Amino acid sequence: MVAVRIALLLFATNVTAQCICPRQSLKWDYKEAAAVFIATSERGPEADFHLRVERAWKGTFKPGDVVPFDPPMIDHCDFGFRAGPKYLVVVTEVFPGAYRVVECSHTGIVDDESVRQDIAMIDRRYRWWNSRLSSIRLRRR
What we know:
- This protein is α+β, with helices and mostly antiparallel strands and about 140 residues long.
- The protein is built from three helices and six strands.
- The chain has helices at about 1-15, 25-30, 115-130, and strands spanning about 35-45, 50-60, 65-70, 85-95, 100, 110.
- α2 crosses α3 (about 115-130).
- It is globular, with a radius of gyration of 18 Å.
- It starts with a helix and ends in an 11-residue tail after the last helix.
């Protein structure tokens, strides 16, 4: 009986240490995001971390903006940026001025083929996705 409880406790501990979240469609990610942009990740002079926006489709960020991004670890689902690469970034706003990027979003390094496909899809659809009409389902009569 004790062995079963210990095994269940160990199993539960391992499950909570992993990020378990469903990966949604690119459209869903885009519509739910506070901002979607391409940025290069950089380290500042005081070891702070930021993203320099190069291109933006959604949100208030513009090319050239520097987005401080040193978020506290909320859970194991936070995306791990590395200084140097260029990323497609899908950002959610936790509260005004506090942003989060999660592992199961469509955030990724621009050099990856799947991310390049996501960028091509955003290029084709972002005007429609930004409109209010894309959220309305028309009923057939």
